[in-house]
Amino acid sequence: MEEQYNPYRTPESEVRDIDVNDDVEPELATRWSRLFAAILDTMLQLLIIMPIMYYLGVFDAAAQGEELPLLTTIGLTILGIVIYLLLHGHLLKKNGQTIGKKMMKIRILRSDNRLSTLFHLITLRTLPVTLLSVIPYGIGTILSIAEVLTIFRADRRCVHDMIADTKVVKVK
C-alpha cells in the first residue's frame, strides 16, 4: 500500500555536528595572537611557581651567583610540567587550547585539521622544547630563542609544531 502525504507529520531534516575536518581550511593564527597567548600562559604559570621558587631559595642562590643543583632543576622542571597540566590539561584535551589560546581565540590542530590527543600534545609538542630549555650554560636559552624564531616561516609553525605535526589556527 502506498503511503499518503500527511501535511501534519513531523518535518525531516539532516542534523550533524560541525566537524573540524570540514572542507574549509582553518585560517592560521597570527604571530601576535600566538605571542600574546604564550605570554598569558607564562604569566599564569609564573604566578604559581614563583612563590614556590622563592620558598626553595632559588632567587637567593641566583643573587649570589650560584648555579642550581641538577636535581633542583629537574624537580622544578617536573613541577612546571605538572602546573602546566593542571592549568591547561582539560582545555588542551577538550579544544586544543591553553587558557591564553582560549582568550586569544586560537587553538592547536593537527596538520590534517583534527584535534590532537592530550598525550600527543604533551609528549611531542611540549616536552621536547621544555627539556631543551633546561640545558645548562645558556645553551637551553639559545635553543629556546631559536625555536621560537621559526614562527617567522611562511607556514607560521615553530619547531614544536613541526615535531608534533600541529598548527595553530583561529577559532571561528
UniProtKB/TrEMBL annotation:
InterPro entries: Pra-immunoreactive, RDD. GO terms for cellular component: plasma membrane. The keyword Cell membrane applies. The chain crosses the membrane at residues 35-56, 68-87, 134-152. Residues 29-164 form the RDD domain. It is found in: Cell membrane. It comes from the Bacteria. It is a multi-pass membrane protein. Keywords: Cell membrane, Membrane, Transmembrane, Transmembrane helix. Pfam families: RDD (PF06271). PANTHER family: MEMBRANE PROTEIN (PTHR36115:SF4), PROLINE-RICH ANTIGEN HOMOLOG-RELATED (PTHR36115). This is RDD family protein. It comes from uncultured Thiotrichaceae bacterium.
